Amino acid sequence: GCIGAGGGFIITPALMAAGIKGILAVGTDLFHIFAKSIMGTVVHKKLGNVSGTLAVAFLVGSIIGATVGGWINMALYKADPLLSEMFISTIYAVLLGFLGFYALFDFLKSSRGGAGGDAHGGPSGATGLSVKLQGLNIPPMISFDHDLVPGGRRISGVIIAIGGVFVGLLAAIMGVGGGFVTFPMFVYVFGVSSMTTVGTDILQIIFTAGYAAVSCYVINGYVFYTLALGMLIGSLIGIQVGALTTKVVKGIHIRGFYAISILAGFVNRAATLPKKLVELEVINMSKAVVDTIEYVGTIIFWVVVVIFGAWVISKFLFNINKLRAEG
Q1: CB 172 within 8 A of CB 68
Q2: 212 Cβ contact partners less than 8 Å away, ≥ 6 residues apart
C-alpha cells in the first residue's frame, strides 16, 4: 500500500525460507496479491492516485509476458524441482540486487542534493531518459499527472506496453505482481510521479497477477489457499494503512524505504544460493557453513521488514488526525 508493490519480493522469499517449495510459494503469492490489489486499488482510486489509461496500456504487454513466464516456470519444475528452486532464487537475487542498489544510490543522491521528491511524492525533475521517451510521438499518446504539471505529461502507449511485457514475464516467474519493478520503471524510465505510480501499479497488478495465477498456477494445483487466506486477512489492514500513509510522507522517503526493502529481499535470496548449489552438486561446502549463511540472510531480511512496517504504522498513527481532517 505504501510503495505500490504487491509485496511479492517479501512474501515469496519468506514462504521459501519457511520451507514452502518455490513454485508453490510463487503460485500462492500471485493468488494472494491478485485479491489484495483489488483492495489497494479501491483505496488509491479514492485518493486520486490511479491513471486508468496508463494501466490499460501496460496490461496489453504484461499479459503477453505473464504467459511466457508461466510456461518457463512450469517447464523447469517438470524437468527438475530443485533446478526450479535455484532458478527462482537466482532471478530474485540478481534482479533485487540491481534494483535495490540503483534505488539506494538514487535515494542518497537525491537526499544530498535536495532534489528527490515533494510532499506529493513526485520527483522534482524527470530523468534524461524519461524526457527522451516522452518526446517520442508514437500513437497512441497517453497523458497523466495533470494535477502536478500544468497540462500534464504525455508518453506513448507503445512504450508503456513494452515495459509491461518485461514486468509480466517477471511476475509469472517470481510470483509477484511486478510492483517492485514497475515502481522504478514508471518513476525513472517513464517519468511518472511516485503517487500516480503507486496507485496505477496496484491497479495493473490485479490483472497481471490474476491472469498469471489462474492461467499458470491455479489450474496446475500450485496454490496453498490456506496461506493465501491468512495473508489476505492481514492485508485488509495493512493495505489501507500503507496507502493512507502516502498522503503524509514525502516521496523521497517512500523511495528510500523501497530501496531498503528491495535490498532485504536480495540478501535473503542471495544467502540461499550456496545451499542450492551444494544440493545441485555444483559446489562443495559444509552443511554448517551454508546453513549459517542462509540463517543470517533470513535474520537480516526480517529485521528490515519489521523496521519498515513499524515506520509505516508510526507515520499513520502520528498523522491520524491530519488524515481524518482530509476526509
Answers
A1: yes
A2: 30, 66, 69, 70, 168, 171, 172
Please state, in angstroms and rounded to a whole number, the distance separating the CA atoms of residues 301 and 261.
8
The x, y and z cell numbers of residue 230, run together, are 491468512
Q: What is the pLDDT of residues 8-39, one digit of tens each?
A: 677 777 787 778 887 888 788 777 777 666 76
278, 23 Cβ separation under 8 angstroms: no
Which three-class secondary structure state does DSSP give residue 156? strand
- Which residues on adjacent β-strands are paired with residue 144? 153
Distances 211 to 33, 60, 92 between C-alpha atoms, Å: 11, 12, 21
pTM above 0.85, yes or no: no
Residue 326's identity, in one-letter code, is E
DSSP one-letter string for 17-58:
HTT--HHHHHHHHHHHHHHHHHHHHHHHHHTT---HHHHHHH
Q: In whole angstroms, what is the distance from residue 241 CA to residue 2 CA?
A: 8
8 close to 26: Cβ distance less than 8 angstroms: no
All three cell numbers of 278, joined, read: 551444494
Give residue-wise pLDDT tens across range 142-187: 877 766 666 677 888 899 999 989 888 887 877 666 666 777 788 8
SS3 144: strand
